[in-house]
Amino acid sequence: MDSIFRKLFFGAIGLFLALPILVVAGVSVNQKQSLTFPPQGFSLGWYGEIFANPEWRNALFASLTLALTSAAVAVAIALPLAWFLWRRIAPWANFFQLLGIAPFTLPPVITALGLLTFWATAGFYGQPWTAAVSHGIFFVTLPLVTLSLGFSSIDRSLVEAAATMGADDRTIFRTVILPLILPYIVSGYAFAFVLSLNEYIVAYMTVGFTMETLPIKIFNALRYGYTPTMASVTILFVATAAVVFGLIARFGDLPKLLGAMAGDDK
Amino acid sequence: MRREAPRHPLDYLPIAFPGLMLVVFFVVPFGTMIAVSFFRRDPAGFYAPDFVFDNYARFLSLFFANVLGFSLFLAMTVAIVSVALALPFTHMLARLPRKAQVVWLVALLSVLSLSEVIIGFAWSTLLSRTAGITNLFVWLGIMEQAQALTPSFGAVLTGMVYQAFPYTVLVLYPAIVRLDPTLTEAARTLGASPLKAFFTVVVPALRNTLVATVVMVFIFALGSYLLPQLLGRPQHWTLSVLITDQAIYQSNMPFAAAMAVFLVLVTLGLVAMTVLIGRKGEA
């Protein structure tokens, strides 16, 4: 295609993706408590507000705790499952792989409602730890996909060599598989972490009335009183996502991780 | 090490924990939801056990038919617009130098991971009267006066395409990267214009992928629950919004559950249809 046309098209898409974020960035540096653009005056006070205001600070703390623990739960489920699927011939185990992919494929409101009825019936409705388990299940797809990809890229002859030299499964896992699979564990964890940080509906339906995560806090602020802090939190989120995915790209092979064949276009 | 079937009972140990977690916290909640959809509403608590079809019978109303019809129409429009934008974009993206590709992928992933709350807030700001894009038009002299562009159908559609576009690109990306570039080159050598080569070679070669992508984006858009609320009027509410509304604000969990079960059936039906179409295309 024409290179001018291509540049225009890329420019238009880039503008479309960036415009809302640019406006929010502008709003976030307003001097006064108003959501105006172009901003009136310049102040970074609304970024300080995230940490200074106890409500926003608590929400930030709740979100970070939830994202860190739920991503760990997701990896803890995905790692043994992906290993088992790679190591064993067991067609029935594919059912569990399907289960691991389902929560992320179905409309999120369904998983959210299922978990809400479940926690309500079990009598744990509103406990903070239920959100960590819920997010862990909801996002298990991400580490499961990256880990399956990671395992499929392991050269089986390496493992074979270790086995011939007398290493048992446990030793092989620790000395051969783990070092090879580690980048995929990290990226799976990072994907789940970023998405959990941003997730609203599952968190809202499970612990919405007892705990405020940042997305819930933003939503409540949207309904009960606008403040530029919403804008500064948004920019913080965009920056976090960009940094995390940038790091994955820096230390890993992002195109390959997203399904393109490695070395295709080098 | 060759793959082998598990022989010793201990060989099953690694799958015990993931299996247990997925069954207890996904299969059981799913079952609970189906069970609750047959329960009665209990104004004092969540629900009372029963076996009634009342919650499903409520579907047979004009209001519900309207909401369902609008949800399907909206999701389909979002899917078609997103694929129409993402197909040429991804095709060009896959031909960029690797470094540029990575930068775009990081940007797309960052937008994709954004919370619906944040996307809704950002677009409602961009389309608002006080901070919105119309101020820029006034400044440029295109418009007389700043005005609010939200709530409206256009705002809902724009917000949802914004949310679905990165997803669409990432779904199309692997298939398009693997597409043999010599196909297009051959068409170009034989004298086809770039546009003609794109429509007569690339699009037909990706036909099955495109159908599958439309369905995946359709399901993705069907799950949008906040954007119609934040950017639209009540007549723009979708089934997902209605489910949330019934479960949380109307405290009618049985009805919400019945709608959710219905949504699952619609989703699964679509997936099955796509698989069938895909098989037919291969044969």
CATH class of chain B, named Mainly Alpha
- Percent of residues of chain B in helical segments? over 70%
> β content of chain A, as a range?
under 5%
Apparent shape of chain B: globular
H/E series of chain B: HEEHHHHHHHHHHHH
Low-confidence stretches of chain B: none
Count of strand segments of chain A:
0
Helix- and strand-based class of chain A?
mainly alpha
Proportion in β-strands of chain B: under 5%
Number of domains of chain A: 2
Query: For the largest beta sheet of chain B, what order do the strands appear in spatially?
Result: 1-2
Largest sheet of chain A: none
Brief overview, please?
Chain A has 266 residues and is mainly α.
Structural description of this entry:
The complex is a heterodimer of chains A (266) and B (283). Chain A is mainly alpha-helical and 266 residues long. Chain A folds into two domains: 1-43; 53-257, MetI-like fold. Chain A has 13 helices and no strands. Chain A has helices spanning 3-28, 45-52, 54-87, 94-105, 108-122, 128-138, 141-152, 156-164, 169-198, 201-207, 214-224, 228-251, 254-257. Chain A is globular. Mean pLDDT of chain A is 86; it is low at 262-266. Chain B has helices at residues 13-36, 54-57, 62-93, 98-113, 116-126, 133-140, 153-178, 181-189, 194-205, 207-222, 227-231, 239-249, 253-282; strands at 40-41, 47-48. The longest helix of chain B has 32 residues, at 62-93. Chain B is globular. The model of chain B has no long low-confidence stretch (mean pLDDT 84). At the A-B interface, α1, α3, α4, α5 and α6 of A face α1, α3, α4, α5 and α7 of B.
Helix-strand blueprint:
The complex is a heterodimer of chains A (266) and B (283).
Chain A: H1 3-28, H2 45-52, H3 54-87, H4 94-105, H5 108-122, H6 128-138, H7 141-152, H8 156-164, H9 169-198, H10 201-207, H11 214-224, H12 228-251, H13 254-257
Chain B: H1 13-36, E1 40-41, E2 47-48, H2 54-57, H3 62-93, H4 98-113, H5 116-126, H6 133-140, H7 153-178, H8 181-189, H9 194-205, H10 207-222, H11 227-231, H12 239-249, H13 253-282
Antiparallel strand pairs in B: 1-2
Helix pairs in contact in B: 3-7, 3-10, 4-7, 5-7, 7-10, 8-9, 10-13, 12-13
